[in-house]
Design a protein that fits this description.
Length: 532
């Protein structure tokens, strides 16, 4: 059993008496004398084998903001063994020391408040090396290959943190220089294409150099603690699975909201938009984790087989249904993060873009378990708050024995929050405390992971990078999953392309166009807003 599975199961078992027991659990873990015991379960780390990691795009934004900070944390935690090497690759002419200085500068902010990271930083920097390579040219590849081959048959990970336009060149050269043999692994970042055809091109090129078992298609949402806790909640507790179907679940909501606008991603984002950037990958992957049948094991292919079945069960949205079931929006000037912000077109510096910065949609998983249960998905930029969460809304009780003075009975909700603060809330009806008669209240039983376990949760990239080294593909997308997701998205893109309608405007700082509210309200439901 992997450490990750062990942690998930430990958490799942801790959750076994959910409901009122959660209150007890929360009280219990908050007592100082009980905290260390629980925390020690959550922070246990198992070192991986010695490895070489090559980051193509080692000077880029993703490497500096996510990959290298994550690796430093794993190193400080004792998970990365001495002797491992990390190579940054880009076109800039830098020496090893020049690269280390650049990375040190960007990591300084991270280590400022953390004595352990500060102490471990010099040894971590010594693991870093740099190669100046142009992925599109042959120069220097011989030296690069020789340098990698100087090590024994250790695990080699090639992380393609560059534009996908370079994936074909990089994979061809890795193959030509004999760097693709097992136990080599390759990690590819989104976007994996902009439609089925371009995704197939990328998958063919990567697949020509590496076997599927060596390819790790990363979706960092799957590395979130909460997503793995969804597995623990569903499959390590007897409580939920009997209710996890159309008989008891009214609907599901999945929201991924950002407050930011384009930042520095304008040229990429304008060719992508929210449907490709967020729905095709992150939101559909979350939907799969909610809707899939119980896999027989945690084996990568067992889990991915079940996710694939969900993607293939999605009812196609084509033709007129696109405008009825899918709302696309584009933000106008408004207010965000406490200040005035320009609209999308002004930020972009163009007036003719029809790229959507917001999508809300109603999907259906057309199978025995989920028939008739709507899955409402929404994502957007310049929304009022940064939050990603999954809401499982259960059906109402069939009959109320309480009189009108007791108040209305609201349905139970299980809310799994992925960011900013990972945790789970179960909304229940309870009696208003005190002797003043029997009045009902809808209250959340709250399980904030950081608070309960007293540890900082690892970032998704940390866990996923270590999974790559371990060769565990459970939390990575298989080729057929990516293709099935695009197959569902393609007709929507085609319908938008053929339509004269522009995205609906919404004011920055609002929850999207009013049509997104109407989408769910015409079914007699509302978007979940957590006021507490
Ligand atoms: P970025 O900041 O533009 O960095 C690109 C990197 O690639 C730089 O190190 C660049 O260095 C290098 N590069 C460019 N052309 C090259 C060539 N011909 N040969 C070798 N190296 C080359 O991009 P990023 O934001 O880090 O994103 C990298 C990938 O991850 C993209 O596919 C992006 O969509 C994806 N992604 C990024 C994020 C994020 O938060 N940034 C999140 C999810 C996915 P030189 O110019 O010096 O060569």
């Amino acid at each position: 059993m992997t450490n990750q599975t062990r942690n998930a199961l430990a958490f799942g078992l801790g959750f076994a008496g959910f409901g009122f027991a959660t209150l007890v659990l929360r009280w219990y873990v908050s007592r100082p004398e009980t905290k260390p015991e629980i925390a020690s379960v959550a922070v246990k780390t198992v070192p991986v084998d010695v490895f070489d990691l090559v980051i193509f795009g080692g000077t880029g934004d993703l490497a500096l903001r996510k990959l290298l900070p994550g690796l430093l944390r794993r190193y400080a935690d004792g998970q990365i063994p001495e002797g491992s090497r990390i190579f940054g690759v880009a076109r800039d002419a830098l020496s090893d020391d020049g690269y280390r200085a650049r990375i040190e500068e960007s990591l300084q902010k991270l280590v400022a408040d953390d004595a352990l990271l500060d102490e471990k930083l010099p040894a971590f920097l010594a693991m870093l090396h740099y190669f100046s390579l142009d992925a599109t040219k042959e120069d220097n590849w011989d030296t690069f290959a020789a340098s990698l081959k100087s090590s024994d048959d250790r695990i080699r990970v090639f992380y393609l943190s560059t534009s996908p336009a370079l994936f074909v060149d990089i994979c061809n050269r890795l193959s030509a220089h004999g760097l693709n043999a097992e136990p080599a692994r390759v990690v590819i970042e989104k976007p994996i294409g902009k439609d089925s055809a371009s995704a197939a091109e990328i998958n063919n090129a990567v697949g020509a150099a590496f076997a599927e078992s060596q390819i790790f298609r990363i979706d960092h949402y799957l590395g979130k603690e909460t997503v793995q806790n969804l597995l623990a909640l569903r499959f390590a507790n007897a409580l939920f699975e009997p209710l996890w179907n159309a008989r008891h679940i009214d609907h599901v909501q999945i929201t991924a909201a950002e407050t930011v606008g384009l930042e520095k991603r304008a040229s990429y984002y304008d060719t992508s938009g929210a449907l490709r950037d967020m729905v095709q990958n992150h939101l559909l992957q979350l939907l799969c984790m909610v809707a899939m049948e119980p896999p027989a094991t945690l084996d990568a292919n067992a889990v991915r087989d079940e996710k694939l079945k969900v993607l293939r069960s999605l009812r196609p949205v084509v033709g007129d249904a696109v405008s009825q079931l899918i709302v696309r929006g584009q933000y106008k000037a408004g207010a965000s993060n406490g200040g005035a912000v320009p609209g999308y077109l002004d930020e972009l510096g163009r007036s003719d873009s029809r790229t959507e910065t917001f999508v809300a949609l109603k999907a259906e998983v057309a199978n025995w378990r989920w028939a008739g249960v709507p899955f409402y998905l929404r994502t957007g930029k310049r929304l009022p708050t940064r939050v990603s969460e999954i809401v499982i809304a259960f059906k109402q009780v069939p009959h109320s024995m309480f009189d009108a003075d007791a108040g209305a009975i609201a349905g139970n909700k299980l809310v799994l929050r992925l960011q900013p603060d990972e945790g789970v809330k179960l909304w229940l009806m309870i009696k208003d405390p005190g002797p003043g008669g029997l009045r009902l209240q809808h209250v959340p039983l709250d399980m904030s992971f950081a608070e309960a376990f007293g540890v900082v949760q690892p970032e998704a990239y940390e866990r996923l990078l270590m999974d790559v080294v371990r060769g565990n593909q459970t939390l990575f997308m298989r080729r057929d999953e990516v293709e099935a997701a695009w197959k569902w998205i393609d007709p929507i893109l085609a319908a938008w392309g053929a339509s004269a309608d522009a995205p609906k405007p919404y004011v920055a700082g609002s929850w999207g166009p009013s049509a997104a509210v109407a989408l769910i309200e015409r079914d007699g439901r509302t978007w979940h807003e957590d006021a507490t």
